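Reproducibility note. Readers wishing to regenerate the assembly model reported in the main text can use the exact inputs given here. Chain order matters: entities are listed in the order in which they were concatenated for prediction.
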Amino acid sequence: MTEPLALRSDAEALAAPLPPLLAEAEHLATTVLLGDHGRKRAGTGDTFWQYRPAQPHDSARQIDWRRSARADANFVQDKEWQIAQSIVLWVDQAASMRFSSDPDLTTKAMRARLLGLATAILLVRGGERVGLTGLRLPPRRGRGQLMTMAQLLSEDGAADFGAPEPQGMLPHSRALFISDFLGDITAVEEALTRAADRGIGGAMLQILDPQEEAFPFDGRTIFESMTGALTHETLKAKDLRDRYLDRLAARKDRLNTLARATGWQFQTHHTNESAANALFWLFGAMEHQR
Amino acid sequence: MLALGPIGFTAPWVLLGLIALPIIWLLLRAVPPAPIRRRFPGVALLLGLADDDSQTDRTPWWLLLLRTLAIAAVILGFAGPVLNPQNARDGSGDLVIVLDGSWAGAANWQDRIDRVDTLLSEAARLDRRVALLNLNNLPPDADLPFSAPMDWQDRLPNLQPFPWQPQDVVPWLEARPGQFETYWISDGLDWEGRTAFLAALEDRGNVTVFQTPRQVSGLRPARFENGEVIVSATRTPVGLDQEITVAAVGLDPAGVERQLATVPVNFPAGEASAETSLVLPPELRNRITRFEIDGQRSAAAVSLADDALRRREVALIAGRDDREGLDLLSPLYYLREALEPTADIIDGALTDILLANPDVIVLADVANLAAVEADALEDWVNSGGMLLRFAGPRLAASDLGRNNEDPLLPVRLRSGGRTVGGAMSWGEPKTLAPFAEDSPFFGLPIPDDVSVTSQVMAQPDPTLSDRVIAQLSDGTPLVTRKLSGAGQVVLFHVTANAEWSSLPLSGLFVQMLERLAVSTRAISSDDAALEGTTWLPRLVLDGFGDLQDGSTLQGVSGDAIAAMQPSAELQPGLYASEDRQIAVNVVGPETTFTVAQWPSSVTVEGMEAVAETPLKGWLLAAALTFMMIDVVASLAVGGRLRGPRADIAAAFLVALTLSPEAQAQSSDEFALRATTEVVLGHVLTGDPEIDEIAEAGLRGISQTLFRRTAIEPADPIGVNLETDELAFFPFLYWPITADQALPSREAYAKLNTYLRTGGMIMFDTRDADSARFGSGSPEGRRLQAIARSLDIPPIEPIPSDHVLTRTFYLLQDFPGRYASRDVWVEAAPPGAELVEGMPFRNLNDGVTPVIIGGNDWARAWAIDENGRLMFPVGRGRSGERQREIALRFGVNVIMHVLTGNYKSDQVHVSDLLDRLGQ
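Running the prediction on these inputs yields the following structure tokens for the assembly.
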């Protein structure tokens, strides 16, 4: 359990150097809510878009009298259609994320929360609406939302390995999954395909401990998952190393392929690397994907 | 006890446990190493991976071997192994233990004592009476000195070897009846009477001999031949090639005894003696006091050098070198013949010769000397030279010493001299009278054919009879001698050639020169030259070859010396008579060593008294070591040495190897810290409490300076004298603790440079409450020890006009926590004077490099991190006043350090104003 205030301030500090992240707007049919993103077409909004001749269904108070006075016809002022993007985050809070191979290294969960919240802060600053998957925190804007999000992110999950919750993702919104993706991959697959079906794009960030990449073990060893539910005993851990690394590479490859097939982006981040690098990548992934 | 070779077991049944070893092997083999449990989220990826083979669950064979060895060592250890178990000797009745006790046993004397100790212990166990005899030091009691073995064990440390061989032991034994068994600790050398003594002992009972064949070597007296020193050595004529190193030992010019030269001497296989030559310059040769065999400890390995090796330098000067004559008429011919074999002869002008400082100068018929020459000669005589003069026509004709005694003549002379028994005179040529007892020539035989026809005559004088050391049969002096200063003047009243007498033609002439120590040579046993003389031992050798003072021993007659047979009466050593020295050595020029042979009736045993060595502790320690190795090895095999924590160990190792660099880094940091601002330093004493107080004290004075003056010091720094640079600090505070380590040589060099280049050290012995300056408190003594190698100028108590009394505050007291007036600084130059009208002396150069006191200033100044005073000073208001004065003194000291004599110069202000015309 992490102190929500501390997490919030850490995330604010990490987010401070970046320019406001303006997520690319996509055409959203159903989630028409006002936001700061001009749609280059007439619609609801605050800024001027064009004058058009008044139609019979236009009420008299909509007529722009100043413009109409200079011509014979009546004109109505159209505003630009502005909407806000909705982004939902899934940050893995399972037990496996609470692993750290060295007291000096932060746990994977800590890093995942930090990156997730930092992204959320950037998005809120850019006027987007941010929320969590599942139904606990629907996308909203404002600093109060961030407080609530920090509070929810600080909770620890009881399961050994986390699985994304596909509920609560609005169609054509965007999503960000942060996890170690070491658990059952079918849940991820299902979530991704469902998201792709509903036109949701996004990014997956895999966070790994350096020890999980190196596997520096030897001798007779019993490996346990963080809750102790899964165990595996070997007599010569050194011999397992190559095969473990092969499997890890296969897992990453699978995730990558999945991401490409669904129009998502995938990246691996290690806890001994700088968190800012990962945030830059997230920034790019949120900005440039269309 | 079960014995296996040299090892016995006290509890052999435990060895049966060794049978269990194969079972333990199998058991150990069956148990694989225990697994480690690791938390690892990646386990999800591992599921389903099987191990390649199952071989590794067995413990490796070498680990098994290690464990088996450990268990075997434990079993063997508890079986009580003993190295060299001793079998008890049995016997009953009285026991006599005989020691040769000569120098030949000195080399391994302790072994002999240990052997005797073992034998005595056995005798004590068997309840036997024991008499312990050192054949060189037999007790005068009427009976054999039987006593309990324990008594003898107490006296064992008193046994010493003697530097001679046993003599006359059979009569001593025969005078003391009794039946006994004998253990004879032999030195391994044969000596005269040994066989007879053995026979006498065998009459009384069984004899067992303890003897180890051991090479014994000795050094014969060195001799001088053809300009070379011949060093010869002898040994027992058995054994292979052997090389020994002989060292010539003497005083070097600084008066320190050292090896002046070393030379190897090679014994060919089976040869008893070997010799080699040593060429040395005369100055070095004359310094040799003894020869030693390097690395051997016995009296025979030392050969003292005496006059035989020393060659005197004799200068010959004749008065008649203008006359070309036959050699035989030359006044120096006979002298030269007599001295050439035994002395180094110098020719030349007198002034040149005096520079060479010879031992003897001979003036043959020289009457007139220039005043400069005479003065120089007199100085030389007074400083220990020997002037030997011969008469002749010139001396007889001159007015030298007629009316007043010439300092360079022993007696006043009558003019002209006299001639007896010549063609133009009456009477027979005179012969020599026997030498008087107090004459150095006493004992020399006088040949009949020595006659004197002419002589110079001495004036009758009250002192004349004391100065005559040889006279003619009619009572007229032939040789007179006068002591002058440390030297002497000797006059032969005849010529040095055969003109006036036949003395120079006789052997007596040479002997007389020897007695006068004009020439020196080796003595031989049948030497008439030693008759009638008495020799005083100056140095004597003990059995180990160490030199002892012999001045408490009584004198020895020349006859005994001539026999050269060392004994209790004639201890080997250096004997002196007048100016001559003779060495009596253990090994003579003809001595040979013979190995003692024993008849078959005698049991001969070795000397080794090997003690029992229990091995239990060693074996158990070995078992423990094996187990420790096993711990590490098991960890390695089980993979516990790898993994995350191994990184820590590796990092630790890397840190160790990289630490010099880290040190360099920190020394840069240190320099920056010490030089960026003014920093006061205190010397780290190694006592954490004192160091902390010193730092707190300097912190306090730094804060006071900061508040009250323009000096704004940073936090003080503790200075390690050995590693830190001192030049950064204007001021070092050095609290003295009683157990402080002395600085190293390098540190002293740094300190002296520091003091010379303007640094100041304040020594604080912190003991003014209990001791005064210079009295013997432990800190005071430590300060003396520390300061001994420091370049500290003369010091004095702070005078009332010292610049320290007015650099910032006007002070006359210098208290710290204690208020002693004993505070010392560099003394004022002796020329300092009080100028008229000035309150202070003119003392305007230099900053005192040291302040020495015991007032414990640091405690008076000390404040803690929060600025609170750490220690009370005095009581009440007066205590507060004392602390204030202490702080003011500190301010004055630092001001003095940083501004030097600036305040001292102020006394000239009025003068300067005058000069400027104000």
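We highlight two features of this model. The longest strand of chain A covers residues 75-83. Confidence is low (pLDDT under 50) at residues 17-36 of chain A.
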